[in-house]
Design brief:
Blueprint: H1 5-15, H2 24-34, H3 49-54, E1 58-60, E2 69-72, E3 82-86, E4 91-92, H4 108-113, E5 117-121
Antiparallel strand pairs: 1-5, 2-3, 2-5, 3-4
Helix pairs in contact: 1-2
Length: 123
């Protein structure tokens, strides 16, 4: 089944909170499912890379595109890492994130420490 990036990102946009609820993986996984791709679950957002790849996503580079998913590794105080989906304008997880070039980082601690990340794209 093809991935409907518009449906996924519309769902993410319409269900995002003003601030983090600590449920980024669940929100992004649900948005991806609304786009037609079901992911198996894992506890930590930082562990979704192989799961995304098994579902047909591939590592991507360059300018973010609608439907891209960022998987960010952990930092002190945030052992589960983070994940977010790009709606074509901004990154969204369980909330609408900060804009700018590092907009996939969910907060100041991530933007300061800049942990490793990967971007995944469904063809």
């Amino acid at each position: 089944m093809p991935f409907d990036k518009l449906a996924a990102t519309h769902y993410a946009d319409s269900h995002a909170h003003r601030h983090s609820t600590g449920n980024c993986a669940r929100y992004v996984r649900t948005a991806i499912a609304r786009g037609g791709v079901t992911l198996t679950t894992t506890h930590s957002a930082k562990d979704y890379g192989p799961i995304l790849q098994a579902a047909g996503f591939a590592q991507a580079t360059g300018i973010a595109q609608r439907g891209d998913v960022a998987v960010i590794q952990s930092i002190p105080g945030h052992p589960d890492g983070h994940m977010a989906i790009y709606d074509g304008t901004r990154w969204i997880s369980d909330f609408r994130q900060h804009g700018g070039a590092d907009g996939f980082y969910p907060g100041p601690a991530y933007r300061t420490q800049r942990p490793s990340y990967r971007i995944y794209r469904h063809p």
